[in-house]
């Protein structure tokens, strides 16, 4: 029972509130009445997990990496359990988001000072690499994990 009809990737037509409320009520009533027959969903292991991304995200940087199952912006992998799959997907999202910076470069290329900024950025990257290799710069320590933080849906 949809509450709205998608008209594009970013727009939708909503349905009348009273109509949707009535449908939700009518649909929930049998579910509540039959809750004694509900069963716990169990996920079999191992789990085949996959992440497919769309622009501006990209996983194409992983194409050709040995041991990575990549095809058309999708990476698939086997995980021992749900937690391992969740952690792997989270890491892949981090990889996919590295492509977001291409939008910044597009914007800078059209900016009057864009080429100067991009040149400074390139110089700073090279300088940081040299500073690290020469022992003049050390990356900051990553923050410690939050006590008790787990993935969504953990017991």
Tell me about the largest β-sheet: 3 strands, antiparallel
N-to-C order of helices and strands: EEHEEEHHH
Give the mean pLDDT: 92
Number of strands: 5
What structural class do helix, strand and pairing data support? alpha+beta
Number of helices: 4
Strand content: 5-15%
Looking across the biggest beta sheet, what order are the strands in?
Answer: 3-5-4
How would the global form be characterised? extended
How far from one another are the termini? 30 Å
Q: Helix proportion of residues, in percent?
A: 40-55%
Low-confidence stretches: none
| Spatial extent as radius of gyration | 24 Å
Write a concise keyword list for the protein shown above.
155 residues; alpha+beta; three-stranded antiparallel sheet; two-stranded antiparallel ribbon; 4 helices; 41% helix; extended
Written description of the protein model:
It is built from 4 helices and 5 strands, in the order ββαβββααα. It is α+β, with helices and mostly antiparallel strands and 155 residues long. It has a domain at 47-99. The protein has a 3-stranded antiparallel sheet, with helices on one face. A two-stranded antiparallel ribbon has the order 1-2. A hairpin with a 5-residue loop joins strand 1 and strand 2 (12-14). Helix 3 (101-110) packs across helix 4 (114-133). The longest helix is centred in the last third of the chain and has 20 residues, at 114-133. It starts with a strand and ends in a 22-residue tail after the last helix. 4% of the residues are buried.
